[in-house]
User: Fold this.
Amino acid sequence: MIASPREQVRVGDYLVAAEPQRSLVLQVYDERYLDVEGIEEERAREEVLSASAQGVTSDPTEMTTISTLIRDMRILMCKARGTISKGRLTPRANWMPSRTSSSVTRLMVEDLEGAVEPLGVRGIRIGSVDSESVFSIPAESLDGRITVITGRKESGKSHLAKILLRGLLDNDAYSVVFDLNDEYGTIGQRKDGTEALPSRKVMVLRPGRDLKFSLASVGLRPITNLLSHSLEMPGTSLREFVKIWEQLDNRDELTLASLETGIQQWRCNEFVRDALFARFHTLASSGLFTDSPHQQFDLQDFFSLNRFGGALVVSLSGVSPLNRRMVVELMLSKIVELLERRKIPPVFLFAEEAHLYLRDTYWEDLITRMRHFGVFTVFVTNQPDAIGQKIYRQVDNIFLYNFSNDSDLGLVSQASMADADTVKAIVRTLPPRMCLLLGHAVRNLPIVVSIDPFDSPASGMTRRFFGDPVELVVPTET
Ligand SMILES: Nc1ncnc2c1ncn2[C@@H]1O[C@H](COP(=O)(O)OP(=O)(O)OP(=O)(O)O)[C@@H](O)[C@H]1O
Ligand SMILES: [Mg+2]
Assistant:
């Protein structure tokens, strides 16, 4: 498409080429100057002229205006996204509109949305499109789906995740957040200190303090998973462990104390006993387990006390990498167990930089098995290569911020459901706070959204040396 300099069209915008019966929906994915034959010669001539004949400015035939106009003409590279006929959009794009008789106009996102069946009625307002109109995605578009938010550092990923989380909570949904930087605890508050959500809807859990489990409530399967994957317990020792566990379980004596005595008194090879003890001590000293019933965290209670949704924010900052993995695995297995027994409704899981605490095997589990039970994950990461290609293929929604690095760009453009040209060209030029939405939530019509500010107290900021009011404590010699 050729555009004159007056026409305000940007990369990501939609156009429509209309014929009487139907119109073709086009999206601008790139732009460049129109290279007309001889344009360089013309420019050179002009340079020479203006240098040699200074002061000659009269141009009675206005030749320069036309030539500047031509030189400022742009070619808009477009992709066909579908056909609108009788007010309905279909993905058919296998025809070409007439070059002479069709008329080309901007198609506002609002009108584009009007041409497709709405996905739901619970809108989460995330920003604006076409410079002024409000843009929302339906909460339903995250329901039962896998979502990825990615972009380079400090592009606004967590910011968007918080907008989505608050939107879900407004719609009485349940969420669990794995929070690495203590950013999500204040999700229920506004900057001025007032409540954006009822305060009991958000609960911050610090592993080892407000988040402890009892052995009995965790159960054998998650514990053996933990022992074999996170603590690398060999198979022979694991078998003995299972026997000890079962014996204690039959006697209804599953406590840390009785497990220790159980291992001590178990008749087995010394190496096996050592291996058992080493793991037992790791578990016991992690602070994640307790024998005392009132120190245990009851997940099911949280759900039954919050009838209208709520968020559990598991604070992973200041938790050792090993404990992080253990907490995450225990939480996930508990959630899945309760979902399997239909004790709790489905939950949305917000996982920031999940590669830091999620075992490889768990990724697939999350997007296949766990999703079927009702764990719908939103992955947030600045390392798109941390999420495998296999997983991207299952992803339903992608929120893409700017990437300038070629290898990251290549990866996300390959992985996303839109064509690689579009993704590469648009994402490379995305200004800060703007985001390209792909996938189910926008019904596979890529849309560039400028994300709203978010009203919550500042948190999760990277600490700085310069600019932070630092209180230095100077050690005094005694
Ligand atoms: N749409 C927006 N409007 C106003 N402020 C924004 C917007 N998006 C992000 N910010 C601000 O920019 C800063 C960086 O955003 P954020 O922490 O969400 O980035 P990030 O991508 O999660 O960074 P990191 O990779 O470090 O986790 C924050 O202070 C945030 O408040
Ligand atoms: Mg972040």
Notes: The first strand starts at residue 2 and ends at 3. The first helix runs from residue 39 to 52. The pocket of magnesium ion (ligand 2) is lined by residues 157-158 (CB under 6 Å).
